[in-house]
Amino acid sequence: MPSQVSTHISIPYFLQRGGELGELIRNYNWAETKLGALETWPQILKNTLSIILKSKFPMLIWWGPDLILFYNDAFKPYLERNGKHPIALGQRGEDGWPEVWPIIKPLIDRVMSGGESTWSEDQLIPVYRDNKLEEVYWTFSYSGLTNEDGLIEGVLVTCAETTAQLQAYKEVNNAKNELEFAIESAELGTWDLDPVTNRFVGNTRLKNWFGIAADKEIELSEATDLIEASDRQRVLSAISKALTYESGGSYDIEYAIINPQTLIPRYVRAKGKALFNQDKQPIKFSGILQDISEERKAAKELKRNRAQLEQTYEQVRLSKEAAMLGTFDMDLESGNLEWDARCRVLFGINHNDKVTYEKDFVLGLHPEDRDRILDVINKSFIKSISNGDYDVEYRTVGAEDQKVRWIRAKGKVYFDEYDKPIRFIGSVLDITDQKLDQIRLMESAEKQARLAAIVSTSDDTIVSKTLQGIITSWNIAAERMFGYTEAEIIGKHISLIIPPSRLKEEDFIISQIASGNKIDHFETIRIAKDGHEIPLSISVSPITDETGKVIGASKIARDISAQWAAQETARRYTERLEIMNLMVETISEELDLNKILQKITDATTELTGAQFGAFFYNNIDEKGESFLLYTLSGAPKEMFEKFGMPRNTAVFHPTFSGQGVVRVDDITKDSRYGKSSPHFGMPKGHLPVVSYLAVPVVSRSGTVIGGLFFGHPEPGKFTKEHESLVVSIAAQSAIGIDNAKLYEQVKLLNDKKDEFIGLASHELKTPLTSINGYLQILSRLKMDDKQQRFVDKTLQQVQKLTTLVNDLLDISKIEAGQLQLNIQKFDLKELLNDVIELIQHSNENYQITLNTTVENCIVNADSQRIEQVLLNLLTNAIKYSPGANTIELSLTCTAHEVQVDVKDFGLGIPENKIGQIFSRFYRVEDLNPTISGLGIGLYLACEIVTRHNGRLWVNSEIDVGSTFHFTLPLN
Question: Coiled-coil region(s) at which residues (predicted)?
Answer without folding.
Answer: 292-319
